[in-house]
Write a structure and sequence with these properties.
The complex is a heterodimer of chains A (about 400) and B (about 450). With about 400 residues, chain A is of the alpha+beta class. Helices cover about 50% and strands about 15% of the residues of chain A. By secondary structure, chain B is of the alpha+beta class. The chains are: A alpha+beta (about 400), B alpha+beta (about 450).
């Protein structure tokens, strides 16, 4: 296939050629960047939280009475006993929060008390000796809390528990040599707290850009949140009995003590709902950008089909002449495919620059990451295939132009 | 002449229905995508109090100094909320026309009927000047007076919705509401007031929240009864004391602050006051770092707090990119379509039509495509705004809506954009040499 005659022909359609190339460049830039954002968002979506999500649910329990710390503590113990007695319930634990809640408590963590710049940041969970079993997280080193280590924590009470259980990600960050067990850490305080256990994985309370560098870094302190506002109960149902347990639990709690508030809308959430809420924004963004990408690709493809069809219509006579002079169907088909390839390559050359420009702008403006080359390459492949696919039908029609066409007047 | 051109355009468009449909679809989708994104952007970036936003200011004091910036993420910005010490001192010194410190509360209301469950409500502890400062509308009654602030009185302003729930919507002024076991006298009922973003307390709400603002009670009273804060608490160091009182004595930040300053002179005087306050505290030994305060007006404050989600901005950018790509596409198709009619143009020019007439004819054709595409875009935008709640978080999606302004804008964008895209093809068409066209045929 000779390229020279194609270029010569394109020179006669400068404006049309430039417009298609520009269209391809724009599409490449937008699709690549959108794909990159989509992939970043979707990659979070499937990250495991480390807990037994299929059987867990959470009750947000506000007290309707201003309890003292002691009163709240005994109410909590009675509530937990009532929950554990339910036939569909495996175990229950009190907590200040739960993984993927979307916000909560986090502390800076240092290795020494004098340190000015903290080593890392931990999502803080407080609960008793039942939390690890309830969540279904795996204790991979050390031990669980003992009941006498658990203390009641009143409103903003300043307690520095001497022991802590950390997630493996946290342990590895603080002690990369893998000997975290028994070591102290300092959490915005001069008093040490010693690592007595390590759990395999426990996701943070929030999953946002700020906490991305500290992913999966969390700690559990042996404290019961006995404050007048209330607390969360994390409940693990027996396998397959989640719905039954979610029905029974609030009834049992209200039955035991009426002076509480469990919101009918947000007060009772299965972990599937928790996960859905946590990633709502990411999924929405991915879907939105996905739709825009598909529309854009469709429009670009349709535009190429439209313009090529016009060109074919315009050149019927010339095609007839070529056919009469001995060009085969295949030659004509190849002519149009190659023509499109050349335009596409031109568009892609500009598009790659545009893609990186747009990415750079997004990086500086919205703190996105720099795009790996693989996205541009896959974008290039997508657009080349799209171009060839779009041009194929008009090109096929062109190849069927009969040589007789050359003799007909226009 | 216009009628003739319209007729010509219609005939031309009918002659190639496939291409015409394609162009209409492209314009329709392009406009709908960008208008749907714009409707979301408009909803979250709007000025919540346009008549006053330039006169409302948020002061920031650098009470943490360099040690508060140790995670290195916020450049050299002072903390974006206040600790109790500074907020109360500034309220006491009372240098602005109106001002209010405020914090988010979430008390429970115990219904008088013993068979009913208590309910949980959201709201803010504020000073009396909060209401006139933000032009808060009342349905019944009014705000409490400054004397109630001073006396730490048990008074309350409730939302229309809560009034509906507790008193069946009747005028409840003077009635009592049991909050956390204590009776509060209702002094006012709000008239359907829920500004978006929640501009007076961005720090604790993030601007957009599905949470309700049901109660407002005196800040001094809330502190008195130890009503804990329900919003964010940020600490550079763990408080030394325990409990809510420990929090009040600490440098932890949990209080929002807003002041009304009616002109430039008042604003600059207030900034001087802030810096003077800082220097006094420094002299007293509280700080040992240089002055680094801020006094932003409301629009600048919302911007610095990134109230418009970056996702919304990115979506808008991507959608605008889509619109541009659509226009380039349309331009290409119009070019092909117009140039194919070179012979027709040649005949018209040879019969004496000036270039201007050719311009008119083809721009009208482009405009017609744009108008039809715009009508399609209107319908798609309407569908898009309806469907946006499937993909976006509820607190944001619920704000996007279709109104007359959006509809007009959609049509205008479609027509103008398509005519813009038709400009170059029309220019080319008007340059067609009549002699050449007549000869070749």
């Amino acid at each position: 296939m000779q390229i020279q005659p194609i270029l010569a022909a394109l020179r006669r359609h400068k404006a049309g050629t430039l417009l298609i190339a520009l269209q391809i460049a724009l599409t490449l830039a937008i699709v690549c960047n959108a794909l990159f954002i989509i992939h970043q968002r979707l990659s979070h979506l499937s990250e495991p939280s480390g807990v037994d999500e299929a059987n867990l649910f959470v009750i947000e329990n506000f007290w309707g009475v201003q309890y003292s710390t002691q009163e709240a503590s005994s109410e909590i113990k009675a509530d937990l006993a009532a929950l554990r007695q339910l036939p569909a319930v495996e175990d229950a634990a009190p907590s200040n929060s739960y993984p993927l809640r979307g916000g909560g408590w986090d502390n800076f963590i240092s290795l020494t008390p004098e340190q000015i710049k903290p080593t890392t940041d931990a999502s803080v969970y407080i609960s008793d000796e039942s939390l690890i079993h309830t969540l279904g997280v795996k204790l991979i080193a050390g031990r669980d809390f003992t009941p006498d280590e658990v203390r009641d924590m009143g409103t903003r009470e300043n307690i520095h528990p001497p022991v802590v259980i950390v997630s493996k990600a946290m342990a590895d960050k603080l002690f990369p040599d893998g000997n975290a067990l028994g070591k102290p850490l300092y959490s915005m305080s001069a008093e040490p707290t010693v690592i007595i256990g390590i759990v395999e994985r426990l996701q943070r309370e929030e999953v946002n850009t700020w906490s991305a560098p500290f992913v999966n870094q969390s700690l559990i302190w042996p404290m019961r949140q006995a404050i007048p506002i209330g607390l969360y109960y994390i409940v693990r149902a027996k396998p397959g009995q989640l719905a039954a347990a979610m029905q029974e639990a609030p009834k049992a709690l209200y039955g035991r003590n009426r002076m509480r508030i469990i919101d009918s809308h947000d007060g009772l959430l299965s972990f599937a709902q928790v996960r859905q809420r946590a990633y709502n924004r990411d999924r929405g963004m991915a879907v939105l950008l996905g739709i825009i990408c598909v529309v854009l690709l469709a429009i670009t493809g349709a535009g190429i089909v439209g313009l090529t069809s016009f060109w074919v219509g315009q050149r019927r006579k010339q095609i007839g002449v070529r056919r009469a002079l001995g060009a085969t169907h295949r030659d004509i088909l190849h002519y149009f495919l190659t023509e499109n390839l050349l335009i596409s390559l031109g568009g892609i050359a500009v598009g790659v620059l545009l893609t990186f420009g747009l990415n750079l702008w997004l990086v500086t403006r919205f703190e996105l990451r720099v795009m790996p080359l693989a996205y541009v390459l896959s974008g290039v492949v997508i657009l080349l295939l799209l171009g060839q696919g779009a041009v194929f039908a008009p090109a096929l029609r062109a190849s069927r132009v009969s040589p007789v066409e050359a003799t007909r007047p226009v | 002449m216009l009628g003739y051109y319209l007729d010509l355009a219609l005939r031309s468009l009918k002659r190639s229905p496939g291409l015409t449909t394609l162009m209409i679809l492209i314009v329709g989708f392009g406009v709908a995508a960008s208008m749907t994104s714009y409707s979301v952007f408009r909803a979250v970036s709007g000025d919540p109090i346009p008549w006053k936003s330039s006169r409302l200011f948020v002061p920031q004091i650098d009470m943490w100094g360099p040690k508060g910036r140790r995670d290195g993420t916020n450049n050299n910005e002072p903390p974006d909320a206040m600790d109790y010490t500074d907020a109360v001192a500034m309220m006491r010194e009372h240098r602005a026309k109106y001002q209010s410190a405020m914090y988010r509360v979430s008390p429970s209301i115990v219904p008088p009927d013993a068979s009913k469950h208590p309910i949980n409500v959201g709201g803010h502890a504020v000073y009396s000047e909060f209401f006139p400062m933000l032009d808060v509308p009342f349905k019944f009654g009014n705000a409490w007076g400054a004397d109630s602030d001073a006396q730490r009185a048990a008074v309350i302003v409730i939302s229309d919705k809560l009034n509906q729930k507790l008193f069946g919507g009747a005028n409840s002024i003077g009635k009592t509401v049991n909050i956390d076991g204590k009776d509060y006298r209702v002094t006012g009922v709000l008239d359907n007031w829920s500004p978006k973003p929640v501009f007076y307390d961005v720090v604790n709400t993030g601007g957009f929240t599905t949470g309700q603002e049901d109660v407002f009670l005196p800040f001094t009273r809330a502190i008195d009864v130890g009503m804990p804060n329900d919003g964010n608490t940020n600490c550079a160091e763990i408080p030394k004391g325990s409990g809510f009182v420990g929090l009040q004595q600490s440098s932890c930040i949990w209080i929002s602050y807003m002041a009304e300053l009616d002109d430039k002179a008042a604003a600059s005087a207030y900034k001087d006051y802030l810096d003077g306050y800082f220097r006094d505290q420094k002299a007293a030994g509280r700080f040992d770092w240089p002055v680094n305060n801020r006094l932003r007006d409301l629009p600048a404050w919302l911007d610095s707090e990134h109230v418009v989600p970056s996702d919304t901005k990115i979506s808008l950018m991507v959608a605008l990119g889509l619109l541009v790509a659509c226009l380039v596409n349309t331009a290409g198709l119009l070019l092909a379509k117009f140039l194919r009619r070179s012979s027709e143009i040649g005949v018209r020019r040879a019969l004496g039509a000036p270039r201007m007439a050719i311009y008119m004819q083809f721009l009208i054709e482009a405009g017609m495509v744009g108008l039809t595409g715009g009508v399609l875009g209107l319908m798609l935008t309407w569908v898009g705004v309806r469907c946006v709640s499937w993909v976006l978080p509820k607190e944001i999606a619920s704000l996007a809506h279709v109104d007359l302004a959006l509809l007009m804008l959609t049509l205008a964008v479609a027509v103008l954009a398509t005519m813009l895209a038709g400009l170059y093809p029309t220019f080319r068409a008007s340059r067609v040499q009549p002699a050449l066209q007549l000869k070749t045929n």
